[in-house]
Write a structure and sequence with these properties.
It is a single chain. The N and C termini lie far apart (68 Å). The chain has a five-stranded mixed β-sheet, sandwiched between helices. Strands 6-7-5-8 form a four-stranded mixed β-sheet. A two-stranded antiparallel ribbon has the order 9-10. 44% of the residues lie in helices and 17% in strands. It folds into three domains: 53 residues, no CATH class; 92 residues, Periplasmic binding protein-like II (D-Maltodextrin-Binding Protein, domain 2, 3-Layer(aba) Sandwich); 148 residues, D-Maltodextrin-Binding Protein, domain 2 (3-Layer(aba) Sandwich), CATH 3.40.190.10. The protein contains 15 helices and eleven strands.
C-alpha cells in the first residue's frame, strides 16, 4: 500500500468535510474520490489522532476568577480581558456575594483559580477550611449611598449629594424604595447595617437603622448583589447601598459618606468602627458580627485547577497595569498587610 503523508491525508480529510460552497463541485467530487482510495485509510486515522493531539495543545487554558459581585465591571470588562490577552489564555468570571462564594469553594462546589473577596471574613472561611494560605490586598473602597438618575426623587438625592439636605432624612421619606444585599451571604449587606449603626451615633439619630432598613432579613429591600445596581440604574429602586468603586465603574450618581461611617479608614477601626456590632444567624448559628476594613483580598485556593495562572493573575492585579485599571474603575489602592 502506498504511503500517504499525514499532512496530505489531513488535507483530504478537511476536503471531505468541507461545507458546501467552500470549494467548486468538481474539486469536491475529486476530493471524495480520493478519500475513498484504500491508500488513505491508515493515513486518515493517523490524521485524526494528530488532529486530536494538536487541538488539545492549541486549546487555550481558561482561568476562572470568582469575585465579589460588586466587582463585575472592573473584572469582566477590564482586568480579566487584559490579563487574558497578555497571557494568551481565556478568562471566565463568576461574581456573587463573597460569603456565598466562600461557602461554595469550601465545599468544592466551585473550584476557581483565584478568589477575590471584599473584607477578610470570606477569606477566613477558606483559611479555616484549609483551602487558602495567604491572601493579598489588591484594592480598597468605601460605603456610599447610590441613587437612580431616573428615579422620582433624583433631584432630591442630588441635593443631598451636594450637602443641601440630610441624606438620611431623605431615606426616611414615605415611598422611597431602598435596596441592599443579603447580610447572610454578602459583606456589603453587613456593611450597610454597620454604616447605619454608626450613622445613629454620628448624627445622634437613635433608631435610624431600623427605621430605614427594617428587619435584617427584609424581603422588600434585599436583592442579589449582581442585580442590585442594575435595578437602581433602571429606576426600579430610588437608592441603594453601594461600594464607591462599583458606582464609579457604572457612572452612577452617589452620596459620599463621611469617614466616620463609610468604613474606609483602617485608622478608625479600633477607636470608632468597632463600637458597633449586631447579631444574626449565620449557617444556623447566632453570630455577633463586627466591622471589617473595606479591602479586597485575593487568594489562590489549594484545589485550584491552574494555581500558577491564579498566582500570575494576583501579581497582575497588584502590578502597575492592574492598579491603573483599578484606579480607572474607581477603586482605591490596597490597604494594610496580607491576611
Amino acid at each position: 500500500m502506498k504511503h500517504v503523508p499525514v499532512k496530505n491525508a489531513l488535507s483530504c480529510t478537511m476536503s471531505c468535510v468541507a461545507r458546501p460552497g467552500a470549494a467548486s463541485r468538481t474539486a469536491l467530487r475529486t476530493a471524495k474520490t480520493a478519500c475513498r482510495r484504500p491508500a488513505f485509510v491508515k493515513a486518515v486515522l493517523a490524521a485524526s489522532l494528530w488532529f486530536a493531539a494538536t487541538g488539545a495543545a492549541l486549546a487555550r487554558t481558561a482561568i476562572l476568577v470568582a469575585y465579589a459581585g460588586s466587582m463585575g465591571t472592573v473584572m469582566d470588562q477590564h482586568l480579566g480581558p487584559a490579563f487574558a490577552k497578555a497571557r494568551h489564555v481565556t478568562y471566565e468570571g463568576e461574581g456573587q456575594g463573597a460569603y456565598g462564594l466562600a461557602h461554595l469553594i469550601a465545599t468544592h462546589a466551585l473550584r476557581p483559580d483565584v478568589f477575590v473577596s471584599i473584607t477578610p471574613g470570606p477569606i477566613r472561611i477558606l483559611q479555616k477550611a484549609g483551602l487558602v494560605g495567604q491572601a493579598t490586598p489588591v484594592a480598597s473602597t468605601a460605603m456610599v449611598i447610590a441613587y437612580s438618575p431616573r428615579g422620582r426623587y433624583a433631584k432630591d438625592f442630588a441635593a443631598a449629594a451636594a450637602g443641601k439636605r440630610p441624606w438620611y432624612k431623605l431615606l426616611e421619606m414615605p415611598g422611597i424604595r431602598f435596596g441592599r444585599t443579603d447580610p447572610q451571604t454578602d459583606p456589603q449587606g453587613q456593611n450597610i447595617v454597620f454604616t447605619f449603626l454608626l450613622a445613629e451615633k454620628y448624627y445622634h439619630q437613635p433608631g435610624l437603622a431600623h427605621r430605614i432598613l427594617g428587619p435584617l432579613q427584609n424581603a422588600r429591600e434585599v436583592f442579589p448583589e449582581p442585580s442590585l445596581l442594575a435595578r437602581l440604574e433602571s429606576g426600579e429602586m430610588d437608592a441603594s447601598s453601594a461600594y464607591e468603586s462599583a458606582v464609579k465603574s457604572l457612572h452612577l450618581p452617589f452620596i459620599t459618606l463621611p469617614d466616620a461611617i463609610n468604613l474606609s479608614n483602617p485608622g478608625k477601626a479600633r477607636t470608632w468602627y468597632d463600637t458597633v456590632h449586631f447579631t444574626m444567624k449565620i449557617d444556623g448559628k447566632s453570630t455577633v458580627l463586627h466591622t471589617e476594613p473595606l479591602v479586597f483580598y485575593a487568594a489562590v485556593p489549594r484545589d485550584a485547577p491552574h494555581p500558577r495562572l491564579g498566582a500570575a493573575f494576583i501579581r497582575f492585579m497588584t502590578g502597575k497595569a492592574g492598579q491603573a485599571l483599578f484606579k480607572a474603575g474607581g477603586y482605591n489602592p490596597p490597604k494594610g498587610p496580607a491576611l
